[in-house]
Each structure stands twice: as C-alpha cells, then as structure tokens.
DNA sequence: CTGAAAGCGCTTACAG
DNA sequence: CTGAAAGCGCTTACAG
C-alpha cells in the first residue's frame, strides 16, 4: 500500500503539500496539483482512514444501534441509513442491543475507542447516563422515535398519534362498530402514542370500555395472546387495531383458528407497513411509516452534524400513510 | 480521554510496560501490574483501537457484505454474525451490495483504507479481480454459499442439493403426483443446486418434463409470475416446489387468486425457513437452512483466521431440515 | 522485569 | 505557495 510519503516523493514535493491537496486545505500550485494527481494515480494511492482518524479527523464511520435487526421493521431502516451513509463516504457499524442498557453501554464504549464519528439510536433504551457519556465524549448522535430523557438531540419520528387516529378512523369509515386495540410496550413512545390516538378517537363512543385495550409485546405471539383475550372479553367486536404489523399477524392467525372471518366478521389493521403485510391472507391493511425515509433522514442529519453543519436540534415528524387492503374491506 | 501515557505516569512506570501489560506480551512484575490496574481503573482508561490499528494491530472490526439486508434471509444471518463478533470483541460493518460488482469493489476499497480485519462475503458477486485484490491486500475473508471462482477460502453453506431432494421427497410422501419447480437465478449456486436436486429426484418419473421447471427471481413477484406460467402450462400439477420462501409466498398468492386450494389441489413447499413462513395461510412448509448457525460459523471462522488460528481452508456444509406445515398437508 | 526510541500514516500550525 | 517538525495513541524490537 502506497503512503502519502510515496506520493510526495514521486511528485517531488513534501508530504504537507500532498496532505493539503488531499484535504483541499490551503493553496497548492496548479502544476504541483497535477503532479500529485499523477502520482496518486500511478501509485493507486488511497489515504489511510485510520491514520487520518488518529490525527484527529473523521473516521468516516457511524454506528446504528437498534434493538434487533431480525425485527422486520429494522432492515429497511438500516438499509436507508447505509445507503445515505455510503453516499457521503461513511461506513456503518450495526449493533443489536436487544433493548438492554448493558449491551448499549458496552457498544458505546467500544465505539468510542474506535473514534466513531457519530451514532444513530434506533434502540429503545438510552438512559440518562448514556446521554451524559455521549456528551462527555463529545460524539454526535441522533435519535429515532425517542428523545433522550434529558439532554437534547435531533429526533426523527413519524406521527404515531395521528397514525393511531387514522387507524381508528379508517375502521369506522369501513363500517366497524366496536373496535379493540392491542397496544405495544408502553415504555416505547411509539406504542404509547398509538394507544393515545386510539383512545382519543374512541372514548366518545358509548361502546367504548377500557377493557377493549389489551397489551401485546410487539411480537406475533403477543398479538395472538392479546387477540384471544380480546375475543373472550368482547366477542362482539368487529375490528382490531393492532399496534404493529407483527401483532396484527398474530391476530389474523388466531381469528382464522377461531373460524372468525376477516374482514367480514372482524376487520384487522396493523401498523408500520412492513413488506410482509402483503403476503397474508387476507392482505393486511396497515398504517405505513415512511421507514426508508426516516432512516435516510436520520442518517443525513447525523452526517451533517458530524461535518459541522450546525443545525438546531429539532424533532422531525414525518407523515404516516394508510395502506388499505382486504383485511378491512367490509363490502365487495 | 485518558491515554496510555496518563496511565504510565500515574502508575509511575513507562508506556512500554503498560503496553506489555495490556497485550499480555512480555513479563511484568506482579506489583507493577497492580499499579497499572489501579491507574487504569482510576483513569477509566480504554485503549484507542484506532491508535492500535495504526501501530499495526487489529482494528477489531470485520465487514459483512451482503446483497440486501431487506431480503428476509439476511437479517438472521447478520444477527448471528454480529452476535459472535461481539463475543470476540469485534464490531461489524455491514454493506449492501445489491449484487453489483461495482458496489462491492467500492466497499472493499473503503474497508481496506480502514484497515478492516476481515470480510465475510454473503454477497453473490465477488469476481476474480476482487479475490486478487483481497489476496494482495492480504485481508482474510470467508464466503457464504459461493466459493470464489478462483483462489481458495473457507466456505460455509448448507446442503442445497439434499435440500432440493428432500423437498421433492416430502411432496411425494404427501401423495403428490406431479411436481413443478420454480427455480432461482442460476448464477447463484444455491438456486442451481436446489434445481439439480429437484431434477435428479424427478426425472425418473414419466410425468416429468423440462417445462415443469420455471425460472423465478427469488422474489415474491417472480414467484407469482412463475406460478402463473406453471399453472397455464400444466394445469394438472398438484405440487409446487419453490426455490425459496419468497417465491413460495408469490405462489400462494397466485393460487389463492386463481381459486386453487392449497394444499388440497396444489401443495406448496418453500426453501430457506424464514420466519414469515408461519404467518401465511396456510402456513408454509419449507426446507429450513440453519441460517443463524451459518452466520455464527462463518463469523467464528473469520475471526479465528484473523487471530492467526491457521486452519486449512475448507467447505463447511451444514444440514438442512424439513419444516412440515399445512401447505403440504394433503389429508386431515 | 523495564524503558527509550522509532515508527504506524496522517494533519496541523508555524515558518519561510 | 511550500516544507520541516511535532503530534495523534499506540506497539515493537532493542538495550539494559
């Protein structure tokens, strides 16, 4: 591997000048520039990012902390993050935290020792300590969905409150008369807001009862159990709004097993808009988050921050969208 | 951030000794050791991986090149790779190549300039040039599924040939009399071997005809189109073996649309064993690859290689497994 | 068992 | 416009 010294020697100048050329910092004579270019070409020179990093510059790598890449919501997000990172010449390290603060802390330490340039938190945790640590390390970060308890950073999320309302409205528009809700873990803002959206839209009706709200775990299994509970408590409901698509999958399964027709007897709507919603039978109506856009945006914001585009920390709320499919289609 | 020099100073010794202690290279007096430990604790010292990297040691990071994390086969693989990497103190960079050599090359260059320790290729491409480049860079790598055309490296794959045969056998055992096959892109060894497995199992039957083999793209859409073609050509088939689960999903969709009952009229079996196979209706029978195990193994092999555990390059072929579900259950 | 020195490949003031 | 020198935080022979 050629080094900057080799380039300098071949171009007949000093290392400093080559460095200046490379970084476009300071002047360099047109002719010298040409010589440098040629030398670089001839030697197939590529600067060492690690040396650069040691010398105090960017390491051109960011990290993406997420709970579990195996959860179908995250691959698309990760893809988007990586796509825009690549555009800017960054590389992304991905870390599965399983939502455990312990793991998250370990990652942060490891990342710090690698002089990572910034971190995207799509992970659920991130306590006060982490924030402090990051601040003391002076490493930029951006959050997905959840703003850190204390301290500020830019946040990208989508409008879960509106989403919850939209889901209910769609169900009502489809002619449903009594709607149950399976909500996700309430330490997740997303789950919380969707629940609030549901409740606010629904509490004016006289059929409403708190027992229509059943907890789930954002997984298929949780969706199944919750559906069983819901149908036992309220055999007369004609719609289920699941807090995410996985739980909706669970609901479809259980309803099918119980011989309850979807959507004729019970309509089902999910949330997130993951790809697999179109392979169920019936295909699942869902409130789609702009997952890819969220990933792209969060990545872009972080990189800007890293590169010194000072921008006020702010919360970006992206719009959600109803994808209407057969699982809520009440009439031919 | 404390540096090794701070530690040395606090412990009242030289930097060299601290380094020796850190790397467990060379002797260090028991008392000195204690002093170092204390100093490290007090200062909350953490060695800089990038400095270490510059000085010629591992950067403790590996890269995972895959076609697209959005393809449901890869998240589980990636998760496994990351899990074992973490155990060994490594961090993983993930790269979506979309199967394009151009992207792959770019990544390799970028990774090289970061002194990455090793690469896992789960990507489809990897031509001769890449291999040469890697060899010249002297960077360890391991492949998933596909051995590089030329040059050697360890390969982890599962037994696709057996898998193809197993799929057919299962269908025959279920009482199917005429089986079609949707095969994946033939530049992928996995797709090819599954096809061969099918053909070898089936060509002895007089119902067999080459027109029973229809190409797909390993995607849902391709599965749909192929199924349409297949059913038009051979309305009398009673089973479809799809080369992967996504295409099987497509098949289920189309059959449902055509009013053909699965499994009563046509049984369907997929391949890969991705999680979502259990959310379709009927649930999809599939030949499951040990995806997680494959990822864990490939990661472990790479890290061993990096750390100098010289091991003969070899091909590890893991077993596949039939997961029998309703989509092939012909009788109550 | 321990330390001084050189080096990894860059960048960054500081002179000129 | 250009170069010499110091420094980033480590490791690695080489002496002692």
UniProtKB/TrEMBL annotation, chains A, B:
The keyword Transcription applies. Residues 2-56 form the HTH lacI-type domain. Transmembrane segments: none annotated. One of its GO terms (molecular function) is DNA-binding transcription factor activity. Residues 3-46 form the HTH cro/C1-type domain. It holds the Pfam family Peripla_BP_1. It comes from the Bacteria. Keywords: DNA-binding, Repressor, Transcription, Transcription regulation. The keyword Repressor applies. This is Ribose operon repressor. It comes from Paenibacillus wynnii.
